[in-house]
Amino acid sequence: VLNGCNRDFLFSGNTFSVVRNLMKLLKAVAFFLLLHTSVFAQSRFSALKNAIRKADAVIIINYESKVDSIKILRFLIPAIDTDSSFINEKKTLNTAQRQKLLTILTRDERIIGRMATTRMFTPQSAILIRKGTAYHFIDLCKHCNRIDASEKLGIDNFDFDKQKWMELDAFFKQNGLNLK
User: Fold this and answer.
1) Residue 142 has pLDDT above 90, yes or no
2) Which residues are registered as beta bridge partners of 57?
3) Which helix (H) or strand (E) holds 36?
4) Which of 32, 44, 46, 106 lies 20 to 30 Å (CA to CA) from residue 158?
5) Global pTM?
6) CB burial of residue 17 (10 Å; 0-12, 13-18, 19+)
7) Cβ proximity of 129 and 139 under 8 Å
């Protein structure tokens, strides 16, 4: 007798099959959780993916704001086709560059630390996504590591960790602009 239990029962074939079945169940639950996390990440970025894939143009820009506001670019976009004088530098991305940008923006590594800041949001770089005459945007502020984006893209500051900011900085440099 082991702790009041029959030793033969603990080591019988039935016990091993129970443990084996529990292990199979744990593996199935783990697989489901991994699959669910992957599907969630894909659906979380689906609006952004669709916008970039279906866009007539994806443009990265550096600009100077003429509007003193936290949500700067959203006030400038309505007149962008008639007045783009606020844009200092721009680059229209080809298909391969769009895919690289999409890979960076949809990387879902939420465990890497975010950069806490109290600095003022003064973006000078952005990603513009044009479809017809409509624009979506991701306004980027390197100084405070925050973004402002079109609501329809479904992304926010929590989607941008330290690693993603470093990758965006390198991406802008590879395309002849500096992330400001």
Assistant:
1) no
2) 130
3) helix 13-44
4) 32
5) 0.69
6) exposed
7) no
